[in-house]
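Throughout our pipeline, every protein is held as a single compact record rather than as scattered files. Such a record has a labelled line for the sequence and another for the backbone structure tokens. The remainder of this section carries one protein's record, kept here as part of the documentation:
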Amino acid sequence: MERSNPILSLIPFLLLILIPLLIYFLYARKRSIVYFEHPESGKMESLIVGFNFILLFFGFIFFGLLLYLRGLIKWGVFFTILNIVPLVIFSRPNDLFSDKTQSIIIISFGLIVAVCQIYLGIKGNELTAKKLIKKGYHFVQPESEKVILAKKRWNI
């Protein structure tokens, strides 16, 4: 029996990491950044206008930690539940579900997560901007082209 090369088995994992990073860095240079400032504390926040690759690729990881850090608590709770439910379901004895049922559950959760991550990739920055404005933040340069574009795209 022929042994497989351990380096070759790492290729899919490297591609899963390198392709999103490559897309992000190639696309990130073309995007506009808008800045928010809290008038009382002086704290500054920045957001990119457009698609959010970080939430697309990593929003589900660590029980939605990135969403909690952005102040998107409802989405964080939703992703936490999506992380916990499969763990609870599959911690039971294997004879609880047939193999076909387990496959259907796994595929269903995968599709739900994929759809939610695509939605957050598209709307994540808008949701974060609206959360910042609700907390009292203001645009740093409200008359600049970038801010006008952001307000138009985010319906603010």
